[in-house]
Design goal:
By secondary structure, the chain is an alpha/beta fold. The chain contains nine helices and twelve strands.
Length: 260
Amino acid sequence: MNLDVKNLSFSYGSKGPGVLKDVSFSASSGEIIVFLGPNGVGKSTLFRCILGFLRPDSGQVLIDGKSTLDYKRQELSRLLAYIPQSYSPAFNHSVLDSVLMGVTGQLGMFEMPGKDKEEKALSVMKELGIENLANRGSMKISGGERQLMLLARAIVQDASLLIMDEPAANLDFGNAFKVMKRVTELREKGYTMLISTHNPDHAYRYATRVIAMKDGKVIADGNPSVVLTGEIMKELYSIDVAVSTVNVGKSEYKVCTPVG
């Protein structure tokens, strides 16, 4: 699946300032594209435009050459899956039932998920290490477990593009690592992922590409080691940053540290 965002602009209200300004990029199978930038730069708005929640003022979002505006909502649900930054369930549905909500777009009106859908949901949950939570209430699990539940729900949706809005923002150090590790494993299965984050170290470690955004515009797009320089980080966050390398076993990772 190929995603093309072409010259996308958006503002809230006809007289409001532009939130997105002529944003363009493409994504293909197996990419993990991390969007990095300060608060209010337009990352979440960009995701909402791609998902079809917001209609852009100008520009296009194309999936395999077809505008998302020309897809029916059910068709889009088979292509795109959204994992929000945080999720507080209104009801204490079991984790299994919450995951099965991902197949809603594949069912007819009043149709219930069959045994095959349940088996698929349980298989995905096992892959993510949360099969033991199947009968637990979704209000009775940790934040990290809930993010993995949402990831499982997105996978059973059968969408090949996963859009994740700061998936580790509210998680502790250990749970954040577990969620991001699962994300990289999905890439190996051919999923395309668009992820926003405020953590540049996640971009260094997990991204195949980084898109840096400021004032609603793309200011850099490319390999993390090329894009995430001290100069770009200072332009994004207005602080001096030192970029260094850490060796962990046979692997080498870059990290950044504020200076001063």
